[in-house]
Structure prediction request, 111 residues.
Amino acid sequence: RQLCFLCFASPPMGNNIFCGQAWHAFRYALEDRIEEKLPYMRVPTLVVRGSRDPIVPQHWAKEATRLLPMGKLSVISGAAHTANYGWAAEFARVTQKFLDEGNRPPLGERP
Prediction:
């Protein structure tokens, strides 16, 4: 965690273009306060997080789900941040279950 903080606390040194782009993307993502936008979502929304996710803590996932008018949280046990890649079958299962439970907006209300 300390290393991550040190990497993103200030711009990277030298000519590493990729590292510079990643730093700017990360800083921009932190400045985009998604929490302010979530209450305006008008569709059922599934929040999926891995239980071993070092980037998105459980308390933040719960808060994001609470802010969503039709939010539901699913935690994939043992998965890290990119559960859709490393745990693709389980990710597909929880997503399909969410859809099967009727979490789809009516046809006339789809964006």
Notes: The chain has five helices and two strands. The mean pLDDT is 80. Helices lie at 2-9, 17-31, 58-67, 83-86, 88-100.
